[in-house]
Amino acid sequence: MSRQRKRDTVLRLLRGEDLETLSRALGVTAATLNGWRDSFLSAGEARLATRPVEAGELESGRLKARLGEMLLERELLEAVFIAVDHHNAECVGIHAARHGTRFEALEPLRQGVRQHLGAFAKGVAAGLCIRHDHGSQYMSAVFQDELAFLGAESSPAFVRAPEGNGCAERFTRTLKENLLWVQTFDTVEQLRLALLDFRETYNTTWLIQRLGYRTPAATRQALLSPAALAA
Q1: 48-92: per-residue pLDDT in tens?
Q2: Tens-place pLDDT, residues 165-218
Q3: Are 127 and 155 in contact (CB under 8 A)?
Q4: 30-47 and 19-26 are packed helices; what angle lies between their axes, rounded to 10 degrees?
């Protein structure tokens, strides 16, 4: 992206446009956009000093952040990404895309953060631990930088040990047996919408043994009730 477009993007942020909306529209992570904004503001402060900062120095931090991102993208046809709460087995995010890129892999995380934490902003997920496998999307600088931006901790499972991410693996099995293996879809958009419908059905009607035969949604509600919070 050119310097001019970066500047225009930062100005849109400073005018109050939503960070996540801009991130989606431009195909740039929120962490990167936040870095551009910080660099822009730092440059403005530097201009007030006696000696201005060299333009090359202002770009160096952003260039370093982008090193190693190339060749990490694994393209998959109609890739499906999920995010599952390990405590109550709830599917908090689900997404389908024609190409399984590192940016598409962030979508379930974005869904869960916005729905359950109320916003998508720097540090909003502090204290949250994100378990993921060693797929190139999840180990990429883009994905890891976004976790750092949100304040969440990255927790990769052991290589070739799917049981280390058992909650997600169990949900994936349920998803395959009840949707992906029994229905066909003409477009990725049809698949994406079907996944969102399945998430709602699963969260509100699936009875989970380890939850005392309650649904994920009912378990969350019970945990967030005034009596439970007071205890």
Answers
A1: 655 555 666 556 655 555 444 433 333 334 699 999 999 999 999
A2: 899 999 999 999 999 999 999 899 999 999 999 999 999 999 999 999 999 999
A3: no
A4: 110
The helix/strand/coil state of 208 is strand
Burial 66-103 (b: 16+ CB within 10 A, else e): eeeeeeebeeeeebbbbbbbeebbbbbbbbbbeebbbb
Q: What angle do CA 40, 44, 24 make, to 5 degrees?
A: 20
* In contact, 111 and 95? CB cutoff 8 Å: yes
Q: Give the integer Cα–Cα distance in Å for 172 and 128.
A: 22
Q: Which amino acid is at 132?
A: H
Residues 6+ apart with CB under 8 A from 52: 46
Total-model pTM: 0.72
Delineate the domains of the chain, giving CATH numbers in brackets: 3-66 (no CATH), 79-220 (3.30.420.10)
- Tokens linked to 83: 């995010």
Whose structure tokens read 């904004």?
37
Angle (CA) 218 224 225, round 5° = 90
How far out from the chain centre does Cα 80 lie?
13
Any residues with CB less than 8 A from the CB of 108 and at least 6 apart, and which? 81, 82, 83, 92, 93, 94, 95
Owner of token pair 């994406």: 192
Q: Provide the total of helices (H) and of strands (E) in the chain, helices listed first.
A: 11, 4
